[in-house]
Amino acid sequence: MDKESLKFLEELCNSLGPAGFEREATLVMKNYVQKWSDSVYSDRMGSLVFEKKGTSDSPTILLPGHIDEIGFIVTGINDKGYMTFYQLGGWFDQVLLGQRVIVMTKKGNLNGLIAAKPPHLMDEEERKKVVTKDKMFIDVGCSNKEEVEELGIRVGDAVVPDSSFRLMKKRSFKNGKFVGNRTLAFGKGFDDRIGAYIAAQAVRVLSEKKIEHPNKVVGAATVQEEVGLRGARTVANLVKPDVAIVLDVDIAGDVPGIEPQNAPAIMGDGVGITAYDASMIPNQALKELTIEVCERQRIPYQLTHILKGGTDAGVIHIGNVGCPSIVLGAAVRHIHSHVGIVDVADIDNCVKLVVELIKVLDKERVESLVSV
User: Which residues does 50 contact at the CB level (< 8 Å), separation at least 6?
Assistant: First the structure.
């Protein structure tokens, strides 16, 4: 990653954009991709679309990565000045208490905290119980409802994790031997700002290096994936792709308490090629082509699966008359929490693989993906 790319990734991940409130993140994306794209436009849901024309207008290769992050929405303000909330996307109750948040209001962004009852005031039985989201509240330092309303907070305002992008460089070892240096990124919104970044970066590489490709490449930053793959539906209807290379993060299973058969992806072991998830079985010919390209170009990869959950591919692959699709991504530790961890090399390898796939997806090859 050069300095410009790294700055873009940091700005994209730090931007605020939970499902339904993606505008800030989408503008960051637009400002970056318009330099490398032949055209940039939006659908009527707010998803950003950007095209890079090749030597032929057909086939159309769609590269979607969703721009929304998980967050919350304010559902009520009580007389003491505390706010109740509901989730935008999936959260596990235990990762929430004591975390800093940002409340997005008409008057600007405010600091807040998902408050926790001090252990001094809990009895033994209370300490053993998990506090559920419906029993939590957000504290912005107010003492009554009037003070909260004066700040501009209303029911329906969005709330996001307060978590800044950070890099860490470290020496890496395997089987007791030094194998090189690694750069890790820590931050929020990796699901799926990383996928959106990969789509943008692939278009940049095609443009900057003047790479010929026998197709039309259409990148997309889709909205509201975390609440039902909504933006992917409208983008697929607008673009009508012939192939979709869906870019999302993979769940890193190299974490205590997770068995490999439940989440086989390992952070730093290469591009995750999803062999199965709950919303889509990939086109098998496209999967084999992807593996072939990885091996020919010496791009590290790993075959993975997600037994529960899905991606934008879940609706794209059944849109219109069907679209051969595959999901690629970098393995991220601790997704759907305030802070994730990813190996920057995995992101770079995803970009490389997407570009190499684009170079071989001509009309004949694409037609062969669905021929019987």
Answer: 33, 34, 36, 37, 39, 40, 41, 200, 203, 218, 219, 220
Q: So what's the pLDDT on residue 123?
A: 84
- Please report the pLDDT score of residue 243 as a whole number: 98
Same fold, 3-69+165-368 and 71-156: no
Q: Which CATH architecture has domain 3-69+165-368?
A: 3-Layer(aba) Sandwich (3.40)
Q: Which of 41-50, 117-126, 277-286, 304-313 has the lowest mean pLDDT?
A: 117-126
Write the DSSP symbol of residue 134.
G
The CATH number fitting domain 71-156, selected from 2.40.30.40, 3.40.50.300, 3.20.20.20, 3.40.50.2000? 2.40.30.40
End-to-end CA distance of the chain: 41
Q: What is the mean pLDDT of residues 41-47?
A: 97
The arithmetic mean of pLDDT across residues 165-177, rounded, is: 93
Q: E strands of 107-254, at which residues?
A: 108-114, 138-139, 158-161, 166-174, 177-187, 216-222, 243-247, 250-251
Which are the contacts of 167, defined by CB distance < 8 A and separation ≥ 6? 6, 183, 184, 185, 186, 344
Domain ranges of the chain: 3-69+165-368, 71-156
Provide the CB-side half-sphere exposure for 305 (13 A, CA).
11
Query: What are 100-156's pLDDT values in tens digits?
Result: 999 999 999 999 999 977 878 888 888 888 889 998 999 999 999 999 999 999 999
The pTM (predicted TM-score) of the whole model is 0.95
110 close to 153: Cβ distance less than 8 angstroms? yes
Helical segments of the chain, H only = 3-14, 23-33, 124-128, 145-150, 190-208, 230-239, 284-297, 313-316, 344-360, 363-368
DSSP codes of every residue in 49-100: EEEEE-S-S-SEEEEEEE--B-EEEEEEE-TTSEEEEEEES---GGGTTT-E
Q: What is the pLDDT of residues 350-370, one digit of tens each?
A: 999 999 999 999 999 999 999
Active-site positions?
A: 225
